[in-house]
Design goal:
With about 350 residues, the protein is an all-beta fold. The protein folds into 3 domains: about 90 residues, Mitogen Ypm (Jelly Rolls, Sandwich), CATH 2.60.120; about 80 residues; about 140 residues, no CATH class. The chain has 1 helix and 33 strands. Strand 3 and strand 4 form a beta hairpin.
Length: about 350
């Protein structure tokens, strides 16, 4: 892409193979004459043949060219300039086939295009595999050696990796993957199915996304907070409505980072006939008390900012354990004489 704002400003593109196409486009507010030409003779000849000339003020242009020989260059150049600015781009519209490897029956084993090498069947690598760009794997892959990927890695088939994997960018896993070797992951790893790790995870600890809450949260809002760290941060408290308890195993983790001074922080079960089970430590000092919900009517946790919690440092972990069952654990920091935060609606 180039910006044209004077005579002889130009932008070029070279097409590697004969028969490839490219698209030239310009846009902007301008009064200019722009000439599009192709190289003639041979690559690097310096001789040009005019294809088209644009002289219409403020014209938005998009048209295609096709190469006559390998490594042919096309250019767009400002012939005359009066005013304005143009954004000019060449786009390679082809992804030409470079080489195709077939078996004796004519089936494609590997198809090398300009942008990517395609393997339509399963891939088994018995030595090391190094990918300098993006790796996209839609079939099954078995990697017995080491793999190093410097771009994004996307796996939609099953990946079995017994060597060491070094991934410098993001990893997207849409199917089951068996990783028995060492994986060094510096980008973001996204698993759409639950990963199984047969060994420990070392290095930088796994982190949860932090969600700061300062106002009332309804069921739709809180459902998006599952398995994240939710911070309560308001002088005037609010009501946090949990979604329906279905036994999903989702964890809601809360930390009080601002002591509420007027309205209480309230966490409530509002869907179905759900109630709290478990226990919470209530601490003003080292003695404290343990508060246990009755499991049949207690569907509120009320932190009033003093005796029932809501003081800076409180931490709760609430788990969707079963249908209509939320289990709660943690410690609420209090002031004054500790009292139960559990209540019935």
């Amino acid at each position: 892409m180039a910006t044209f704002n004077s005579v002889d400003d130009e932008v070029l593109i070279t097409l590697p193979q004969k028969g490839e196409s490219a698209i030239f486009a310009v846009s902007g507010t301008y009064v200019q004459v722009i000439r599009v030409a192709k190289e003639v003779g041979s690559p690097g000849s310096g001789a040009w043949s005019i294809i088209k000339e644009f002289a219409t003020d403020d014209e938005t242009v998009s048209f295609s060219v096709t190469s006559d020989f390998d490594n042919q260059t096309f250019r767009a150049i400002v012939q005359t300039y009066t005013s304005g600015s143009v954004t000019a781009t060449w786009t390679d519209a082809s992804d030409a086939e470079l080489y195709t490897l077939r078996d004796k029956f004519g089936n494609v084993l590997i198809n090398f295009l300009q942008s990517v090498g395609l393997i339509p069947g399963s891939l088994q690598v018995q030595t090391n595999l190094t990918v300098d760009g993006t790796l996209t794997q839609t079939g099954n892959a078995t990697l017995a050696g080491d793999i190093a990927v410097t771009g994004n890695a996307t796996t939609t088939g099953t990946l079995t990796q017994t060597g060491k994997a070094t991934l410098a960018d993001d990893l997207q896993v849409d199917k089951n993957s068996v990783l028995t070797g060492t994986t060094l992951q510096t980008g973001i790893a996204t698993f759409t199915e639950v990963p199984v790790f047969t060994a420990g995870i070392s290095g930088t600890p796994l982190k949860k996304e932090v969600v700061a809450v300062t106002a009332n949260q309804n069921v739709a809002a809180s459902a998006a907070h599952a398995n994240k760290l939710v911070t309560f941060n308001a002088l005037a408290g609010f009501i946090y409505e949990l979604p329906a308890a279905t036994g999903s195993g989702d964890v809601y983790e809360f930390i009080v980072i601002t002591t509420n001074t007027s309205v209480a922080y309230v966490i409530e079960c509002t869907e179905g006939a759900a109630f709290f089970r478990g226990a919470i430590n209530m601490q003003t000092d080292d003695s404290g008390i343990v508060s246990v919900p009755n499991g049949t009517t207690h569907d509120f946790i009320n932190m009033n900012g003093t005796t029932t919690g809501g003081v800076l440092g409180g931490h709760l972990r609430i788990v969707d354990a079963a249908v209509d069952v939320w289990t709660v654990s943690g410690t609420l920091v209090c002031s004054g004489s500790e009292a139960t935060p559990f209540a019935a609606s």
